[in-house]
Amino acid sequence: MKKKLTIIGKGTVGALAIAHYTQLSNFYIDWYHNPDKSPLSVGEGSTLSLTRHLRRKLGLNSYHMKQLNSTYKVGINKTNWGFSKEPFLHSFPMGQVALHFDASKLQNFIFEKAKSEKNVRIIEDNVFDLNKLDSDYIINCTGTPDNLQNENIFHKHKYIPVNSCLVNQCKWENPTFPYTEAIARPYGWIFLIPLVNRCSAGYLYNSDINNLDEVQDDLNKILKRKKLTSYKVNNINFCNYSRKNNIIDGRIAYAGNSSFFLEPLEATSINTSLKIIYGSFEIFNNIEDDTEEEEREKLYDLNYRIHKHMLDVESMICMHYLENDKYNTDFWKNAKQLSHECIFKSFESKENFSNIVKYALTKNADFNANHKNVVEERRRVRKTAEYKGPQSVATWPVQSYIQNIYGLNIVDILNKF
Questions:
Q1: Separate counts of helices (H) and strands (E) for the chain
Q2: How far apart, in Å, are the Cα atoms of 225 and each of 17, 203, 261, 266?
Q3: Structure pTM?
């Protein structure tokens, strides 16, 4: 007898979940969404994991770029970070690109495709109690939970120094750069995400330190420099948090903002949500073949790995805030203190983040200049015992750590830990 899966939420993560399950499972699927709730759409950056997911699960290619208001992303161009003397590009390997995309257009694209799936039933309704759903399995992809203060359920990522984002949408005729801009500023940092017909500009800041007026004034300086004119403004306050357990009782999974939110410096959100979606599939699809002990071990292992992943992401983000020789503002004083505490704790625990950073520190600044070096290193590391950790930590491969440690010019700082 076929099992039933319920997916709740029509946002980006809910859409990616249904794309995965309709492709790989034979479950009956109920997809719940509230038609009166508009998903946030600020323009999104991504990593290579989204490109692979869309290609494999939906067959998307360059032909669909215009439908998604999407542009190719070759990396993240970082300005004014650390002790860097000039901007540097955190780039993807040669020949590989990610996407900048309009979240609402991607959601609607997948939504329309799901309507034609014979095993999918779309239900316009709110879900207030998961336990009342007639479903074997549930993936909750709704927004920020109301019970974030419950320390038994959620972990607060207290070392991340930003808690608000001022977003300005700016129209343009054509995109003028092929990467995400990440510009460190006196009160935080600014992202610029190029879509086909607009640029999404956001200022990440700490509302406990700086007010909205001074943040908008500083953002206006960058918009003027880039010849961008804002036509829509939205201010978003947020917490940095993650669930301690994302799969409950082998039946309920939490993904997207119902699971976590960390600031978007390295576009880690979608990659993390895909980890949860793929992990839930392994649990739900094979649970009937497992003994109770095997099921408990799988659930513990998956929840543990995701929790550790979130801590590594926090450390990777905080690495960017370790030092800044351009600004000596209250924001950066606080950011430096928090990030030093975070990195010290990570190195003290000797977890994946500290191990991959220590390995990256053994390489030199010119290592990533030659693509052949990157490819050969990836192959060599897999065959030797020189580095025994995972090939990717907090969504970054070894090569990204090398790029950023030298690009930020924080080698000496990290060696002190």
A1: 11, 21
A2: 39, 15, 31, 23
A3: 0.94
Confidence of residue 381 (pLDDT cuts 50, 70, 90): low
Paired strand residues for 155: 242
Quote the CA–CA distance of 303 and 310 in Å, as a whole number: 11
Q: Which amino acid is at 30?
A: D
Sign (positive or negative) of CA dihedral 375, 404, 52, 275: positive
Average pLDDT over residues 3-22: 96
Tokens 């070392």 correspond to 159
> Which contiguous run of DSSP H or E holds residue 99?
strand 98-101
* Each residue's pLDDT tens digit, 57-92: 999 988 899 889 999 999 999 999 999 999 999 999
Quote the CA–CA distance of 387 and 24 in Å, as a whole number.
34
Q: Which residues pair with 4 in a beta bridge?
A: 28
User: Using 50, 70 and 90 to split pLDDT, how confident is the model at 382?
Assistant: low
The stretches of 79-175 forming alpha helices (DSSP H) are 103-115
The arrangement of strands across the sheet holding 188-194 comes to 88-91, 75-79, 180-185, 188-194, 198-205, 164-171, 229-237
In this structure, the strands spanning 75-79 and 229-237 are unpaired
Residue 137: strand pairing partners: 5
Amino acid at 364: N
Could you give the CA distance from residue 285 to residue 277 in angstroms, rounded to a whole number?
12
How large is the angle between the packed helices 48-58 and 12-24, nearest 10 degrees?
A: 40
pLDDT score of 93 more than 70: yes
Helix crossing, 48-58 with 269-286: angle to 10°?
A: 40
Which residue in 135, 109, 107 sits closest to 121, CA to CA? 135
What is the gyration radius of the CA atoms in the chain, in angstroms? 21
Mapped onto helix, strand or coil, the DSSP state of residue 280 is helix
CA angle 80–174–112, rounded 5-degree value: 105
226 pairs with which residues across the strands?
A: none
Report the distance separating Cα 183 and Cα 208, nearest Å: 21
What is the H or E stretch that residue 169 is in?
Answer: strand 164-171
Token pair for 113: 């495709």
Q: What is the pLDDT of residue 367?
A: 54
- Beta strands at 198-205 and 188-194: parallel, antiparallel or unpaired: antiparallel
